[in-house]
Amino acid sequence: MDTIQELGEFALIEKIKTLFEQPADALGIGDDCAVIPIYNTNLLVTVDTLIENVHFFSDHPMEKLAKKAININISDIVACGGVSKWAFLSLSLNPSMKISQIETFIESLQKSCASRNIYLLGGNTAKDDKLSINITLIGQADKPILRSTAKPNQDVYLTGEIGCSACGFYAIKNKLSASDKCLERFLAPKARTDLIDQIKPYATAMIDISDGLLQDAEHICSSSNVGIDIFLENINICENQNLNDIDKITFGEDYELLFCADQKDRSSILAISDVKLIGRTNNSKKITIYNNGRIIIPKKYGFTHF
Amino acid sequence: MDTIQELGEFALIEKIKTLFEQPADALGIGDDCAVIPIYNTNLLVTVDTLIENVHFFSDHPMEKLAKKAININISDIVACGGVSKWAFLSLSLNPSMKISQIETFIESLQKSCASRNIYLLGGNTAKDDKLSINITLIGQADKPILRSTAKPNQDVYLTGEIGCSACGFYAIKNKLSASDKCLERFLAPKARTDLIDQIKPYATAMIDISDGLLQDAEHICSSSNVGIDIFLENINICENQNLNDIDKITFGEDYELLFCADQKDRSSILAISDVKLIGRTNNSKKITIYNNGRIIIPKKYGFTHF
């Protein structure tokens, strides 16, 4: 084993996590956000990068790219039960990029930030041969919701419909037709800020679906030391026919919320619109996927970079 | 005017600054760090990017690159009179990169962070065709020192020796010989954490020399609405003979501190080792450079990306 590709993304992150001592009074590497207690509140900090021809195609509309860039960060803050406050934008740009393009990008970013009361307070600009967008977003939460606090025998819920982003990506890549909904979900996904206030009182653990449902569910399992049974027939999966269900639920980039809650809260939670009960935690420490009573073994669980 | 190159880096930043409303209770775009008041202290936040073949050569030793990456951020926190606390690392990597290379990088970064009590709390990893390093660093300062608070008729001081980084870069680029000092200053510059406690009681305004002395001095002028007379003969300039003095002082990447202070504090400040009085603020709103009594008009002031 010699290269990063052979090592893999999560082994690299694990290497970094092992090497760097984590402070006793803050939550560092290993959740959607870092959690830093300050006086009687907590700062939440998250960083995400979008690189041209890695995360997006060169013809990704700039107005939608800006929405995506800020929403994938907002989604991390939401997944920790927080409110987004301050953003920092690092832009690497090709000097031959048209001013009108970057103007469209920053105008759209401004609208997205303003509509959520997020202030852009700084960043960095650099020359590069292509466009890269790196956003650091700082939020605040009095009581953060973590990945690591699920218990066995809790219900597992998923918001919204998943797989639409996968189908949108697949259609764009292969020049196929897809619904506006699918295209929009890949090009400009929205963080579920609309649901967080209703979910927050009940969620015992939460994560956003960025790397694929199964992989993100596994993150809850490994962090909380639980297993999860997932019932495929209960998941609201995109109806587009270009991909199969496993491909749809393992692509990621849905930015829906996966959360656990006590069974006593089930009726209250199912009264929230756009939330479905899709599984149950247990002591097994692994993910088991059922499709109408039969166990399915998927070939992959989600997206990794290397 | 059609491209980013024609627009220029500072006009792009100005465009962003104009578009995004800044909050009344925090200091956003336009200083070394953003300043966010939290209870009775202030968070300082800075972001910097290093891109392969833009900011560093492909054969930049990984151990030194890590030191540089964290120190250029620490330098921004120091320039605002703060203490660095929490770091976030975004790495974009070529999957064919050797594990041993990235191990050297993260081990060196860990040492630099540990020696300054900085905790790495998160970040991001992504695939790319080359190496990019983006660090967000959060610090704290009870009384931040800004660029915008210089007054006319104050003394202007510079720490250390400048131009060494320029000479180191020039030697590496053109395969010339240079002293170890020059090479080290380009490859692994150190933030002046050693001087900040002595300078802090006196500095009325401060900036670090990242883009070149004249350009960074201009940032103080425009932010504080003052002018500065700079006396070239008083500046401690690197003795390497490959570049002329103006090229040396306008290259940047020295990470020395340029600060203003009341004249009454002059003797106390000159008692600090490695600090020289190099100029004086005035009402002119522009930089004037004197060389032994004669005015010099430099062809350039510093580094811009586009």
Features:
12 strands; 60s Ribosomal Protein L30, Chain: A; 306 residues; Phosphoribosyl-aminoimidazole Synthetase, Chain A, domain 2; 10 helices; globular; alpha+beta; 2 domains; homodimer; 7-stranded mixed sheet
Instruction: Compute the CA-based radius of gyration of chain A.
Output: 19 Å
CATH superfamily of the largest domain in chain A: PurM-like C-terminal domain
Structural class designation of chain A: alpha+beta
Instruction: Tell me the span between the first and last alpha carbons of chain A.
Output: 13 Å
Total number of distinct structural domains of chain A: 2
Spans of chain A of at least 5 consecutive residues whose pLDDT stays below 50 are none
Largest interface: A-B, 70 and 70 residues
Number of strands of chain A: 12
Query: What is the second-level CATH architecture of the largest domain in chain A?
Result: Alpha-Beta Complex
Task: Describe what you observe in this structure.
The structure is a homodimer of 306-residue chains. In chain A, the strands form 2 sheets. Chain A has a 7-stranded mixed β-sheet with strand order 7-9-6-10-8-11-12. A 5-stranded mixed β-sheet of chain A has the order 1-2-5-3-4, covered by helices on one side. Chain A contains 10 helices and 12 strands. The mean pLDDT of chain A is 93. With 306 residues, chain A is of the alpha+beta class. Helix content of chain A is 31%, strand content 26%. The radius of gyration of chain A is 19 Å and the shape is globular. The longest helix of chain A has 18 residues. The first copy, chain A, folds into 2 domains: 111 residues, 60s Ribosomal Protein L30, Chain: A (2-Layer Sandwich); 142 residues, Alpha-Beta Complex (Phosphoribosyl-aminoimidazole Synthetase, Chain A, domain 2), CATH 3.90.650.10. At the A-B interface, helix 1, helix 2, strand 1, strand 2 and strand 3 of A face helix 1, helix 2, strand 1, strand 2 and strand 3 of B.
